[in-house]
Amino acid sequence: MKNAGKDCVPAYFYMVASPAEEEEYIKGIEDVVGRVPIFGGSAADNTVEGKWSIYTNDKIFSDGAAVAFFYTDKQMGNVFTGEYNETTNSGVITKIKGKRTLVEIDGVPALKKYSEWTGAKAKELNGNNLLTTTVTKPLGVKDRLGDLIAIRHPMFGNKDGSMNIGANLAVNTAVIQMEASVDELINATGNTMKELNKEMEGDIGAYLLVHCGGRRLAIGDRVGEVVKQIKKEAKGVPFLGVFTFGEYGVKDHGANTTGGLMLSFTAFSK
Question: What is the pLDDT of residues 131-148, one digit of tens each?
């Protein structure tokens, strides 16, 4: 706010942060500006080793957050979605460690419960294998209104049967096994662009498309099909896309939140 020469809240804000504490950064910003719509995503690298950088006007760092406030009367539209399908497999989180390690679902070790739900073999759930195995079959939690399912990406399978998750968890919260084929992950980009375009009232000047890096991994060499769908719906309007390790957005009547394996597509009016 000081840099902008303002003493009032912005219309909306962009954030990029290092993975692990995104929810806390959002809370801190909201302590100052209130519930202003967010968009953005977490810094990423190619191998989940922490080899990422965050760039600001005068600094480069790997641990922290960068924020941009938008002071404008121009419309911004955001669609925040996983575009996954719910299955009938669900349970209650009964034990966690810290904020991001899922230990038990319904009193059963998380990896065992996940294996029962999906039929995945133990070797597919050990260590880093879990990250790729779960892209098409992640977990999800509903917001208090049921309008948004924030995807929770299991990223590392531990020897004690727990799994590291890419976003915060809470005990006594229902967790749902979600699913989507690679075809559906690709088609989700076109569907989300269509939904975003419907939200905008005037001419669109540009798009910023935050796309989860995990989804990108599953899509692999077919990523050209994603670009083709986006170009079709953008109709010549410029767009910039990034692949992230966490996505941020907001659903109407809901709260700013984070998820993994999600799309946070934003449009700006001319």
Answer: 999 999 999 999 988 889
pLDDT band at 171 (very low <50, low <70, confident <90, very high): very high
State the Cα–Cα distance between residues 4 and 250, nearest whole angstrom: 24
In a domain, 2, yes or no: no
The first and second tokens of residue 262, run together, are 């999600």
Give me the domain span that covers residue 165: 85-179
Nearest to 20 by CA among 261, 215, 216, 258: 258
The CATH number given to whatever domain includes residue 45 is 3.30.1330
Amino acid letter, residue 215: R
Kindly report the number of other CB atoms within 10 A of residue 4's CB atom. 12
Q: Is 6 part of any domain?
A: no
At residue 39, what is the residue type? Answer: F
For residue 5, tell me if it sits in a domain: no
Query: Which residue's structure tokens are 């009964």?
Result: 94
